[in-house]
Amino acid sequence: MLKNKFIYLIAFLSIIALIISIYLTFEHYNKRLPSCLIGTKCDIVLTSKYSEIYGFPMALIGLIYFSLYLLLIFLLKMIKSKIFKNFLILYSLLGSIVGLVLIYLQIFIIKNICSYCFIVDSIAIINFFLTLKI
């Protein structure tokens, strides 16, 4: 029962991250900067050289990552395989490492925080630890 609660929490957090990623991707391809929460500088972060990889916005990568993550969580709930669970742990570890790197870049290199980006990156890290509990 407790494992189910973790799965639902992971799914809920992933949906939040997915919605933010969709919003940021939409804004990117419409060449608009999103309005940011008070005290953060999304425009600086989202126009920095770290905002894209090979021309793909990080928001699109987040959209793909969290879409696949939600699919994997759903499949794990259906399949309940140890190998599949281990794959999900590795996948979430990759996401948490990327999240840590992106938070590091915001704080120490860009020296500005994008609240949307920070939330998505934090969810990737939190999801890793929650995945260890299922």
Please sum up the structure shown.
This protein is mainly α and 134 residues long.
Keywords:
134 residues; mainly alpha; de novo design (two linked rop proteins); two-stranded antiparallel ribbon; 75% helix; 3% strand
Structure description:
The chain is an all-alpha fold. It has one domain: Up-down Bundle (de novo design (two linked rop proteins)), CATH 1.20.1440.130. The protein is 75% helix and 3% strand. The protein is built from 5 helices and 2 strands; from the N terminus they run ααββααα. The chain has helices at 2-29, 42-46, 58-79, 82-110, 115-131; strands at residues 52-53, 56-57. It has a two-stranded antiparallel ribbon. Helix 3 runs antiparallel to helix 4 (82-110). The mean pLDDT is 94.
Distance separating the two termini: 10 Å
**What share of the residues does DSSP label as strand, in percent?**
under 5%
Largest beta sheet: what is the strand line-up? 1-2
Task: Determine the number of helices (DSSP H or I, runs of at least 4 residues).
Answer: 5
Give the class from helix and strand content and strand pairing: mainly alpha
Q: What is the average per-residue confidence, as pLDDT, rounded to a whole number?
A: 94
- Percent helix, as a range, is over 70%
CATH superfamily: VKOR domain
